[in-house]
Amino acid sequence: MSDIICAISTPLGKGAISIVRMSGDKCLQLAEKVFSAKNFSYKNIVPRMLYLGYFNLNDGTKEHCMMVYFKGPKSYTGEDLVEFQVHGGTILTQKIIRVLTNNGARIANPGEFSKRAFENGKISLDEAENIISEINADSESELKAVLSLSDGKLKEKIKNLQNSLTESIAQIEATLDYPEEDFEKSAKDKIFDDLKNIDLKINQYLLDSQNARYISKGINVAIIGSPNVGKSSLLNALVGQERAIVTDIEGTTRDILNESISYKGIKLNFIDTAGIRLSEDKVEKIGIEKSKQSLTNADVILWVIDGSRELSNADSEILKLLKDYKNVIIVANKSDLKRKSPKFENEIEISALKEINIEKIKEKIYKLVINEDIDFNKTIIINERQIEILSECKKILEDLKNSKNQSMDIIAMLIKNLWNCLGKITGECENEHIIDLIFSKFCLGK
Question: What domains appear along the chain, each with residue ranges and CATH number?
Answer without folding.
Answer: 5-108 (3.30.1360.120), 139-211+379-439 (1.20.120.430), 218-369 (3.40.50.300)
